């Protein structure tokens, strides 16, 4: 698959490259990224280098699309759609935001573009895009809810997390769903 660049009002989403290694390494030192994502912990520079190599390979294989989110040329975060196969028109979204870039609405802007691309016939052509997170990850859940994902429930002991299984929240958006923000019971109050 040929890598695609997505653009929003404030961001460029493109394949992460070797120039991003230091910024990815620095961002992945954040305790929240290590707590709520599958990045290795402790996170070493070699992990960022391997991530860059795998991102390019995944695009080529068509199994995952990975973007570096850049605001004014600075790495703001990463987003991907993974679990892509020729057998089923479904995928799963994942993302993280660098600590210094949070609170500006950039992640929501990026995820809206990724969802549009993933569910578009001119993009990945998916029928269903799923979101999962460790239960309690309210920041990620808020972004998904604002992007129109419908909360589907809590999966008990469903997500592997550093040698244990944690409860996970799951939500999805279908290609024919409206993209209006959703109210999720786990975000109430």
UniProtKB/TrEMBL annotation:
InterPro entries: Acyl_CoA_acyltransferase, GNAT_dom, Ribosomal_N-acetyltransferase
Transmembrane segments: none
Residues annotated as domain N-acetyltransferase: 11-176
SUPFAM superfamilies xrefs: Acyl-CoA N-acyltransferases (Nat)
Gene3D superfamilies: 3.40.630.30
Name listed for the protein in its UniProt record: GNAT family N-acetyltransferase
Species for this entry: Microbacterium awajiense
């Amino acid at each position: 698959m040929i890598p695609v660049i997505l653009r929003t009002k404030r961001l460029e989403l493109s394949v992460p490259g070797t120039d991003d290694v230091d910024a990815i390494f620095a961002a992945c030192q954040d305790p929240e990224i290590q707590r709520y994502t599958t990045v290795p912990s402790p996170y070493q520079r070699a992990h960022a280098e391997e991530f860059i190599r795998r991102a390019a390979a995944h695009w080529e294989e068509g199994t995952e699309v990975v973007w570096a989110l850049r605001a004014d040329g600075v790495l703001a975060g990463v987003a991907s759609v993974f679990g892509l196969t020729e057998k089923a028109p479904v995928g799963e979204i994942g993302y993280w935001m660098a600590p210094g870039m949070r609170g500006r609405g950039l992640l929501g802007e990026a995820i809206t573009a990724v969802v549009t691309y993933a569910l578009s016939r001119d993009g990945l052509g998916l029928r269903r895009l799923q979101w999962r997170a460790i239960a309690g990850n309210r920041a990620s859940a808020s972004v998904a809810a604002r992007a129109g994902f419908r909360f589907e429930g809590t999966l008990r002991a469903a997500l592997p997390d550093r040698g244990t299984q944690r409860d996970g929240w799951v939500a999805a958006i279908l290609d024919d769903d409206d993209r209006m923000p959703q109210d999720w019971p786990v975000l109430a109050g």
